[in-house]
C-alpha cells in the first residue's frame, strides 16, 4: 500500500525558499512588497519605482530611480530583426504564442544572453522590462495589419505602451490608470509562472530561457487567462438585468465563475478592491457602466452565496473591464499581465540564484512492481 499522506497536490503549502520581496496573507487579504501594502504602492508609486525596488530589494533614492528610468527609456527600442519576425508571424495566432517566440528570439540577439552572473541578469532584466512593452505593442499592431509604432522617450512606461498600442498619446489619467494596473500585477509571490522561472533558473540556465518558461506558464487559462474569460462571461450575460439570474443559475449548477476564488486569498484579493474603485470611476466618467453594473451584481451574489467558504472576487474580476475601457482587446489581457509580471519574474530569479539550489522534487510511485519484460511477439 503506497502512502500518499504527505503529497501536497499542486505544491500547496510547500515551502522551498525564502524571499524578501512579497508577502501574502490570504486569510486577511494582505499583499505587501518589501513590507509596504499594495494599496500604498498603487496610490503613491509607479511601475518604474516598484520594478526597481523589486530588483534591488529596497526603496530607491530619487537619483537611483531617475537613472533606472533613463535606462528603461534607452532600452525601449528592439532590434529590427525581431520586428521583422513579429511582422512575419501568422495572422490570427494568440498573442501569448507570439510573445513566447519573441522573448526567445530576443535572447538570440542579445550578446549578453548566456551570461548568468547577477550583474548580467540585472542588466538583461532592465532590457526585458523596457522591451516587453515594445514587443507586445508591436505584436498587436502587426496582427491587426497596422504599422508598428516606435517608442517615445518622453512618456512614462505605461503611457508609452498605450501610445505604441494605439498610435495615439493617452491622456494623463489613462496613463496613470494603466500604470496602477501594472503596479498591481508586478509581483505576487510564488505563483505558477514565477515558480517556473525559478525552476528554470535553478539549473543555471540563461535569463531569456527563464522568462520564456514563465511566459509559457502564464499562457495557461488557470493562471493568466482568467480576465479574458471574465470578459467572455460579461458578454454572455449581456445586460445588468440578466446578471443575477445568470450567476444564480451557474452557482446552482456548481459551475466555475471566472475571476472568483483564489488559491491563496480566502478573503477579498486586495488588488481587486483597488481595481474595483478605478473601474467604477471609469464607468461613471465614460458612461461605460454596463460591464461594471454586471460585475457589481455578480460580486454581490457570489459573496452572499460563497463568501462564507472563503470565495471572493480576485484581481482578474475587474482588471478586464479596466483594460477594455482603455481600448485594449481581451486577447491582450494576458500579455499585459506579462508586461507587468516581468519585473517580478526577473527579481525572483535574481533573488533565488544568489543562494541557488537545483530544484529537484520527488514523486510517490504508484505504478506496477515486480514486472518483467514481455517480448513483443508474446503480448496480447
From TrEMBL:
Entry-linked PROSITE patterns: CITRATE_SYNTHASE
PANTHER family, per the entry: CITRATE SYNTHASE, CITRATE SYNTHASE, PEROXISOMAL
Protein name, entry field: Citrate synthase
Molecular function terms from GO: citrate synthase activity
Residues in coiled coil: none
Native organism taxonomy: Bacteria, Thermotogati, Deinococcota, Deinococci, Deinococcales
Active-site residue numbers: 262, 316
Origin superkingdom: Bacteria
Family under the similarity heading: Belongs to the citrate synthase family.
Pfam families: Citrate_synt
Record GO biological process: carbohydrate metabolic process; tricarboxylic acid cycle
Organism: Deinococcus aerius
Catalytic activity: oxaloacetate + acetyl-CoA + H2O = citrate + CoA + H(+)
GO cellular component: cytosol
Pathway: Carbohydrate metabolism; tricarboxylic acid cycle
Record's keyword terms, sorted: Transferase, Tricarboxylic acid cycle
UniProt xrefs under InterPro entries: 2-MeCitrate/Citrate_synth_II (IPR011278), Citrate_synth-like_lrg_a-sub (IPR016142), Citrate_synth-like_sm_a-sub (IPR016143), Citrate_synthase (IPR002020), Citrate_synthase_AS (IPR019810), Citrate_synthase_bac-typ (IPR024176), Citrate_synthase_sf (IPR036969)
Amino acid at each position: 500500500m503506497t502512502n500518499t499522506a504527505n503529497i501536497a497536490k499542486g505544491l500547496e503549502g510547500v515551502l522551498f525558499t525564502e524571499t524578501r520581496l512579497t508577502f501574502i496573507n490570504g486569510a486577511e487579504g494582505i499583499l505587501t512588497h518589501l513590507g509596504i501594502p499594495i494599496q500604498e504602492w498603487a496610490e503613491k508609486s509607479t511601475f518604474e519605482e516598484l520594478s526597481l525596488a523589486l530588483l534591488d530589494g529596497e526603496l530607491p533614492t530619487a537619483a537611483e530611480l531617475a537613472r533606472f528610468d533613463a535606462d528603461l527609456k534607452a532600452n525601449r527600442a528592439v532590434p529590427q530583426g525581431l520586428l521583422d519576425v513579429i511582422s512575419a508571424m501568422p495572422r490570427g495566432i494568440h498573442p501569448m504564442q507570439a510573445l513566447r517566440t519573441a522573448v526567445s528570439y530576443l535572447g538570440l540577439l542579445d550578446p549578453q544572453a548566456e551570461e548568468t552572473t547577477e550583474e548580467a541578469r540585472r542588466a538583461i532584466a532592465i532590457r526585458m522590462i523596457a522591451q516587453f512593452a515594445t514587443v507586445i505593442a508591436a505584436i498587436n499592431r502587426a496582427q491587426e495589419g497596422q504599422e508598428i509604432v516606435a517608442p517615445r522617450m518622453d512618456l512614462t512606461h505605461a503611457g508609452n505602451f498605450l501610445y505604441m498600442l494605439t498610435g495615439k498619446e493617452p491622456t494623463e489619467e489613462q496613463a496613470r490608470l494603466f500604470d496602477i494596473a501594472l503596479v498591481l500585477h508586478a509581483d505576487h509571490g510564488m505563483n505558477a509562472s514565477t515558480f517556473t522561472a525559478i525552476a528554470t533558473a535553478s539549473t543555471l540556465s540563461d535569463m531569456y530561457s527563464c522568462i520564456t518558461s514563465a511566459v509559457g506558464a502564464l499562457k495557461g487559462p488557470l493562471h493568466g487567462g482568467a480576465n479574458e474569460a471574465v470578459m467572455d462571461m460579461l458578454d454572455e450575460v449581456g445586460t445588468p438585468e440578466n446578471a443575477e439570474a445568470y450567476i444564480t443559475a451557474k452557482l446552482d449548477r456548481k459551475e466555475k465563475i471566472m475571476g472568483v476564488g483564489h488559491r491563496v486569498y480566502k478573503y477579498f484579493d486586495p488588488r481587486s478592491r483597488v481595481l474595483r474603485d478605478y473601474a467604477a470611476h471609469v464607468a461613471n466618467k465614460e458612461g461605460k457602466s454596463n460591464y461594471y453594473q454586471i460585475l457589481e451584481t455578480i460580486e454581490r451574489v457570489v459573496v452572499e452565496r460563497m463568501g462564507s467558504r472563503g470565495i471572493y472576487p480576485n484581481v482578474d474580476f475587474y482588471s478586464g473591464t479596466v483594460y477594455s475601457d482603455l481600448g485594449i482587446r481581451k486577447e491582450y489581457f494576458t500579455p499585459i499581465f506579462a508586461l507587468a509580471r516581468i519585473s517580478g519574474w526577473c527579481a525572483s530569479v535574481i533573488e533565488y540564484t544568489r543562494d541557488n539550489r537545483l530544484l529537484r522534487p520527488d514523486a510517490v510511485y504508484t505504478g506496477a512492481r515486480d514486472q518483467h519484460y514481455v517480448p513483443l511477439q508474446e503480448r496480447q
